[in-house]
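We modelled the chain as a single entity of 235 amino acids. Its sequence is:
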Amino acid sequence: MERPGLAFIIVIVLAIGVIALTSRDHTVDRTMPERMEEQQQQEEMEARKKQAASAAKAGDPARLKAYEGLSAGAVKAELEIENVGTLKLELYPQAAPKTVAHIVDLAGKGFYAGIRFHRLEDNFVVQGGDPESKKLKKEDFAGKNSQEVATALNLGGGGSGTSVPLENKLPHLQYTLGLARSKAENSGDSQFFINIQDSAHLDKDYCAFGRVVEGQDLVTKIQMGDAIKSFKIIK
């Protein structure tokens, strides 16, 4: 009689243990999606806040006024791009003297001739200035997005070897030129981007040093792989 009773007790204890484990597993499975959904909602909320802040900043009249009077002392330049046409530029030494002097020096040496645009983000920026892109052909960029170009073609890290300090006085309005850089503030070199739209969120973090004053309609025609035929300083 004692043995069957002991066996019965053991069976009951094991059953209770299995139920407890099963119950605990189900609790984990049930709460994980809730946690993930909560985190996703928080991320989406933060993204909406940033978008709203950027939109409000973009409409600030003070940002437009920042460019008033700069044309008088501007350096005039022409950027000719294959398959696209010629963009007429103004570069502003009053706001970004070291950056403009650096770009003018590189352009005068013919540094940009043959360099291809290696980054395109729709409704954001188009970017070029990496001398490593001279080794590639237009077809090398076919079917690739900006991230794939960076990884597969190893572009985005090249420059002239000389950096300039961050000069961040001007806002990044539509069609302005900005100097690309790494995470280090004073790492800007030869790579530049054109703001396809107003990019208010870049203000203070990147240097805007000029803008496209003629040929603005050509900016959205630039594709990855298009080469710079010439970057001429007019005066």
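As a brief sanity check on the tokenised model: The chain has two domains: 2-58, 71-233. The helical segments are 2-58, 61-65, 97-108, 146-152.
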